[in-house]
Design brief:
By secondary structure, this protein is α+β, with helices and mostly antiparallel strands. Among the domains are: 118 residues, Porin chaperone SurA, peptide-binding domain (Triger factor/SurA peptide-binding fold), CATH 1.10.4030; 124 residues, Roll (Chitinase A, domain 3). Helix content is 57%, strand content 14%. It has 13 helices and 9 strands. Helix 2 packs across helix 3 and helix 7 crosses helix 12. The radius of gyration is 26 Å and the shape is globular. The termini are far apart.
């Protein structure tokens, strides 16, 4: 073989792998660009979250709002929705590893519970109003049931409330159980029309009356769709005194109830234990027509007057539930932080917002 050909042959063998590598890198780059500018809003450990899914929840949460979000407000809501979808996907993947995914039977059973109060026509109408299909509802139910399973196994099952815990709480808060008048145990989610900062898990704050109206309607849509009231309150309530406790206001004496604004008083009076109110506007002050904010209220129980003894099963149950809820909320917040830190998340929508910032 001539010297030139002998030397050229190995070169050709080296060039082919290099060309293949360049082609592969180009393909990977193209795929990455497609995700960041295509149908992918985010990825969680390689699992794609579609932009169409973000839009579906966006339409659901803004359904019935008098003034749909615009501009930066709309973008902020989409980012918030995507963050929740990312958290949900993290929890779903966690559940799969633990073997805790909800079964079809469990999902169908929950759907039947939701449908029970309505005729088929009424049920389909409510789905349409919220821009949901039956498959959408089943997916949400499956996710909610699955996350509940994870929380039950990883958190609730590890919480223990002893008899001494209950006794100590009773002795330190005995006055709470001496009811000189009827009392209402209520929780609230508050949104104000005043701009500023707020402390809740999502650091979410309405900055105007129109934003407050939209936000409180989104909150009502959530809790009416079966989301946990306390969790929604911790995430979104703008009342610094109750948000960290899941909106729990404790027991409100009847005399205090009479001193509240008429809208709140009437709303609580109409509720039965376990029910949630519609949106309640709150005025700036007595006789004022200016709106300070809005609230959604949940009534847990109504207690008659009289001293409650520690041996009363209702007292023990009430204390146990309060202690369980406090510890559960604390551990849940910590748990979510841990699983987020362990996940690989690529948020393409957030990247685009940053990239486009300042551009006209």
């Amino acid at each position: 073989m001539p010297y030139a050909k002998l030397m050229a042959a190995p070169v050709r063998r080296r060039v082919v792998p290099v060309l293949c590598m360049i082609t592969l890198m180009a393909m990977l780059t193209a795929c990455s660009r497609k995700d960041s500018g295509g149908d992918g809003a985010a990825r969680v450990n390689g699992k794609k979250i579609l932009r169409s899914e973000v839009e579906k929840y966006y339409k659901n949460q803004t359904a019935g709002t008098p003034e749909p979000p615009q501009g930066e407000q709309a973008t902020s809501l989409r980012l918030s929705i995507l963050k929740e979808l990312i958290d949900n996907e993290i929890m779903m993947q966690r559940a799969e590893k633990l073997g805790l995914l909800a079964t079809e039977e469990e999902v169908d059973g929950k759907i039947n519970e939701v449908k029970a109060p309505y005729t088929q026509e009424e049920f389909e109408k409510r789905l349409k109003e919220k821009n949901l299909s039956l498959e959408d509802l089943k997916r949400d139910m499956r996710r909610n049931l699955t996350v509940d399973k994870v929380i039950n196994k990883e958190i609730k099952s590890k919480i223990s409330i002893s008899d001494s815990d209950i006794t100590n709480y009773y002795n330190q808060h005995k006055a709470e159980f001496n009811l000189i008048e009827p009392q209402y145990h209520v929780a609230q989610i508050v949104v104000t029309t005043q701009p500023g900062q707020v402390r809740n898990l999502k650091n979410d704050k309405a900055q105007s009356e129109s934003q407050a109206k939209a936000k409180i309607q989104q909150i009502l849509n959530r809790v009416e769709s079966g989301e946990d009231f306390a969790t929604v309150a911790m995430n979104y309530s703008e009342d610094p005194n109750t948000a960290e406790n899941g909106g729990d206001m404790g027991f409100m004496p009847e005399s205090a109830l009479k001193q509240t604004d008429p809208g709140t008083r009437d709303a609580i009076a109409r509720l039965k234990p376990g029910q949630i109110s519609s949106v309640v506007p709150v005025a700036q002050g007595p006789g004022s027509r200016s709106i300070w904010g809005y609230r959604v209220i949940k009534l847990f129980t109504k207690e008659l007057a009289g001293q409650r003894d520690l041996n009363d099963p209702r007292v023990q149950q009430s204390i146990r539930e309060q202690l369980l809820q406090r510890r559960e909320q604390l551990l849940k917040s910590a748990y979510y932080e841990v699983v987020r830190n362990e996940a690989k998340v690529e948020n393409y929508l957030a990247q685009e917002v940053l990239k486009n910032s300042g551009q006209k």
